[in-house]
Amino acid sequence: MLELFFELPLTPRLAGTRELYYRENDFVVSNGALESVRGEAKISFDTFFGAVSLEKLRRYTTICRLLYRFEVNGSFNILLCTEDGTAASGYLEQTGEIGICLSDIPGNSKLLYPVLQAKKTGGRISRIQVFAEGEGFRPVNCALIFCTFLREKSVVKNVDYLYDTLGSQCRIIVSDNGGTLKEDSFREGVTLVGGENVGGSGGFGRGMDAACKIKDITHLLLMDDDVEIDSSAVQRALNFVKFLRPEERDLSLAGSMLYLDKPTRQFAAGGYFSQDGIQRDYGHFLDLSNPADLLKNQDIFEINYGGWWCMLMPAEYAKKGERPMPFFLKYDDVEYALRCRQRILTMNGVGVWHEKFESKYNSAAEYYNIRNYLYLCSLYVKGFTGQKARYIARQRLLRKLFCQQYQMAEAVLWGYQDYKKGMNYLKKTDPAKRNMEVITLNYTLTSYEEIVEKWGIQPAKGRFYPPPAGKRGYLRALMPKRIVLTDEFYDHPVQYLTARYAVHCDHDKNQGYVTKGRFGRFLWILTEFYKS
After folding, report:
1. CB 482, CB 499: distance < 8 Å
2. CA-closest candidate to residue 238, choices 2, 64, 6, 1
3. How far apart, in whole angstroms, are the C-alpha atoms of residue 209 and residue 193?
4. pLDDT at residue 35 greater than cutoff 90
5. Which of 123, 63, 52, 126 has the alpha carbon at shortest distance from 95?
6. Fewer CB within 10 Å, N or C, the chain?
């Protein structure tokens, strides 16, 4: 029985992402179709969104045959290729199909993709669909859960887009932490649940509660509100799990995160949290428009967690009562995956674009990072002691102190103090109230124009005081200076030595904040830490 696997998107979702969809010579997009502008024009789909992960189909699913359906107008030579060569071929002048059995493809091939060559100018490709055939096909009923807080435009846009493109494939649930959305903000059939601001962990937990009330739900798809997504990624993920072998049906599928500002670059495709507390992200900064990096990204990694910017998981976890730990933000997805012992897979073609985390970096993030990381280690790191927790917190605290970031240092102090109060404190504390207290430690960013006006110094990327390199670098760092310019995300404590003031710059936003070296504040925070 043939079932639709996915449809190859012919129009890039974002600018600058064409080579995540196809590689072409002399094709243009015209009214949603691809049109050749000369004879012998060639287009290849050996891309993130165009290629099929053969290795993972063979290992985890019952799929034995794939059928490609092409809607074309004009003369085309069509090849089905792997990275090792041509696996099947055909010739079409109108809508037609080319099928291939996976057993006929060499066993070491990892990716399968179509290549089309137009024989004449004006050949049009209107649609390419991939159908799969396999035993044990099962229906999948998915609840797609968005967690949102004061991003009304982003979440409404994403819900409308996925509602239009996926139709009945997903039931959409919006968990609103901000209380700013109404039922009529969305189409009929979208479920809105709300309450106080309980962060990402509580918001997704609220969405899980709503999903468990829906009859016959088999899977949950957790997604951030501010991502950019191509619906073909969701379509491919849902149809992949329909064909899972019976012994593989507990698999979760983690979507890759790609950078919004560098949209062919990948932040991570899943990660691994080891028993010694070390985190490893896979596929970090691979350029997925590069065929060699695309093949690397196809590898089967040892993954034990995935980001909730896009995570498809069996609903059984929620139905058994598993809910995210009340971490508010940070490490809730890691802890949940470890507690539930999720088996997690990643796959080319399944991913979203997301703003880089540096853009959301502030003192509150420091608080949640240190507090929740220590809780995570206490639960899942062998031999984790109070002494080790103190060492980790002290190293982070000292770095912030030496970088004149006293408010961030105080956030680290609070996070460590709250960790020491124990898990019962975490479960009993009011997350919304604690968050309101924590965000008072955030710095207020000012524009570069205001910095120039007040300080008479122009922040510019080329003027950032560089980290020390060799003896000369350290000697330069030791020279007295009134003010230094530093990159907020890529600085070094030595840069701040002997500086009275520092401008911490976020060059992507053209904003920053100014700090002043205060030995009294330094000493007070350090003393409070050792008293803890």
Report:
1. yes
2. 6
3. 10
4. yes
5. 126
6. N
- Joined together, the tokens standing for residue 356 give 């880089």
Full set of structural domains in the chain with CATH:
2-134 (2.60.120.380), 142-355 (3.90.550.60), 381-442+523-531 (no CATH), 446-518 (no CATH)
Residue 217 has pLDDT above 80, yes or no: yes
Q: What six digits make up the tokens of 399?
A: 């770095």
CA atoms of 102 and 94, how far apart (whole Å): 25
DSSP H/E element including 261: none
Tokens coding 221: 């798809």
Residue 296: pLDDT above 80?
yes
- Point out which residues pair with 66 in neighbouring strands: 100, 132
Three-state DSSP state, 318: helix
For 336-388, how does the pLDDT look when each residue is reduced to its tens digit (9 = 90+)?
999 999 999 999 999 999 998 877 889 999 999 999 999 999 999 999 999 99
Cα end-to-end span (Å), the chain: 65
What stretch of H or E contains 82?
strand 76-82
Crossing angle of helices 332-340 and 199-212, rounded to 10°: 50
